[in-house]
Amino acid sequence: MKKINLKELRTANHRVIRDINELIVLNIVREQEPVARVKIAEIAGFEPGTVTRILQQFLRKKLVYEAGLGASTPAGGRRPRYVHLNPAACCAIGVDIGAVEAVLALSDLRGELQSVKRIRNTKSPEQTLASVAEEISSLVHSSKAYRELGGIGVSLIGLIDVEQGTILEGENLGWPEPVEVGKILRSKIKDIPLFFENGARLAAMGEIWFGGPHLSGIRDLVFVDINEGVGAGIILNGQLYRGFRNGAGEFGHVCVDPSGPTCSCGSNGCLEVFASDLATVRRYVQRARISDDSAIDVKLIVELANKGDAIAIEALKETARYLGLGLAPIIYSLAPEVMVIGGKLVSAWSLIEKEVWASCAERVSQPFLHNTKILPSTLRARASLMGAIALVLAKNFAAPELF
Fold first, then answer.
1. CA dist., res. 193 & res. 150, Å (int)
2. Domain for residue 5, yes or no?
């Protein structure tokens, strides 16, 4: 049960109830399309007339369209027409500012990417963000082919002030802190809403909204993001969980070995020093006895491992062992239904899956481990980029927060 917050309260008047019914229908169309009206009524538990009234509004607003005919029933009668979500009804721009590069994309209402741009980061946040703003302007121009641009979602690294869009702490970027990303972008991008969030949290949003049918109906999910650092995004009962002062999800700084190396946070033996991409590269370089590591990254190590390179395989398996250990406190503290692992190393999931499970089983009892799924991300684009897009598009589908 959720305690009612009397300081921020909206009563459920007839308009709110009508809005919820409309959202139910729109979400059914989104997840089931193409879908007949009778099927929508069956899933929602609404009278056919209610569904017809709602769809007529959507058709007028061009949120949906009808095309194609289904099979007639055994009793005969008119063949049902299929309802589809109109991808041109709204679009979104997603911006994912990572440690190495910024990736930008224009997406339609279905979350399908129409244009993708990449920018290499520099040591100057002002210079990098000026280039980002320039590419955003180009995507804004492309968005004119859509009925509406819902806004711009921006994924950032580290501890974020989501209202202002300020990076308060983001050691993996190498930028002086704080970085007022929101202030800089808003000075260059006028009259378009900008929304900001931590990348790992947005990755979790990306999975919930665009992760595919295998995640349909999932309400409790943790996304563990393995990149230059290790972060986590938490979805509880279908909602993004930020924690007090936006600090939730820093599982990369959970200690897995007190005698381990010093982490950037100042503690010893954090998960991040053992399981991040930087740790995997360092491990491979040492074992392969490579003197110049400038051309070595996790993508290359994964490619080598998938071709059978023994040193690359062992480096990834050791990363997987530490990752499994780091998942244990997440399972015990949150008991998520699904844990999704993201990052370049999941391209070698078939090689490391058993190691992740085996090491996790060393610290988690079977009743807990048995009830948790550990899956690789299946999003083709970076999950945090898809989450930045979801940050905008989800406003068309998300339930109102009454209490």
1. 8
2. no
Give me the number of domains the chain comprises: 3
Q: Containing domain of residue 141, as a range?
A: 91-204+385-396
What distance in Å separates the CA atoms of residue 364 and residue 133, rounded to the nearest whole number?
46
Same domain flag for 221 and 157: no
DSSP state of 259: T
The three-state secondary structure class of 129 is helix
Average pLDDT of the segment spanning 198-206 = 94
- Residues 6 or more apart from 286 whose CB is under 8 A from it? none
Question: Cα separation of 130 and 143, whole Å?
Answer: 20
- pLDDT tens, 224-276? 999 888 999 999 988 899 888 778 888 999 999 999 999 988 899 999 999 99
Q: Using one digit for the tens of pLDDT, what is the confidence trace for 78-114?
A: 788 899 999 999 999 999 998 889 999 999 999 999 9
Q: From residue 286, how far is each of 64, 271, 281, 307 by CA, in Å?
A: 56, 19, 9, 20
Block residue for tokens 């920018």: 119
Same domain, 166 and 304: no
Q: Which two tokens stand for residue 215?
A: 């995640």
